[in-house]
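Slide 14.
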Amino acid sequence: MSGPSLETVVRILMSGTGESDVELAYRLGCTRALASRARASLGMPPMPLPLSTPALTDEQRVMLGAVLTSGGHRRWIGRVTGDGVPILDAHRTVARVMFRMTYEREPEGVVRVDCVRKHCVEGLHLTDRLMREDRAALDASGGAR
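Slide 15: predicted structure.
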């Protein structure tokens, strides 16, 4: 099964949906690159995932923008800070939302990436203060992980 053609995406963009490239790609089952290429072919400016999308929850926005990569990592394709930290808006990082989705609780303290890939947003690769303290206590007692 193949996704829509460039011409199809161009036609949809000309109808003025107002969707970001990520939202459009998700809805049509194509790549974000195809949506971006179609937008560029029309001379339209890039349209990243919006900071605030009333129709989508934070969790939905994270799942749209967190692309699964090799090794079970997730790369964020949305907005980032100057340091490359994935963000939803000025008040929420992608890591905090992904942590909450994965562990079904709010993180305590700073959420950190606990894998080799910088800025990975895979929930299982994130830790909060409590998890790091538990690991440190286990290591100090000589316990195995």
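Speaker note: The first strand starts at residue 66 and ends at 68.
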